[in-house]
Fold this sequence. Notes:
By secondary structure, the protein is mostly helical. The protein has helices spanning 4-13, 16-19, 29-40, 46-49, 56-77, 84-129. Helix 5 packs antiparallel against helix 6 (84-129).
Amino acid sequence: MKNKFEDKLAKTILSEKFLNPTAKPQINTETKRAFMEAVANFHEYGKAIYREGVTLKELSEEISEIVNIAEGLTLQESEHWFDNVTVSRHMKQLKEAQKVFEKTALEMNEMQQRLESAYDDMGSVLNRYYKVNEALK
């Protein structure tokens, strides 16, 4: 038979999680305050989520144009300086890298849209229960 001292010792040695696995952890006031502040500023994450400025699609199009012009100009300008076979090989490598870049940019654009959607969903749910300072996009 256990006595009170053994019960008290067992509770101090073992965490409440092991004694009562269904018990939810208690959140102290400092953690709660930090949480409320983070939720109130949830909109700030949008700056990183929604890329402002040039989109990846626009960037890919600009780079594609640069590569096309570089190919023509380099072949034209280097006729006397370099071996045309070497220059042609380098331009082929450049175009292949541009194609990989374009494909990856399209994939990233799809992932970006998923990321934005998930962010919006999280913001909507948080806004139902807590005060988010600014409206989400």
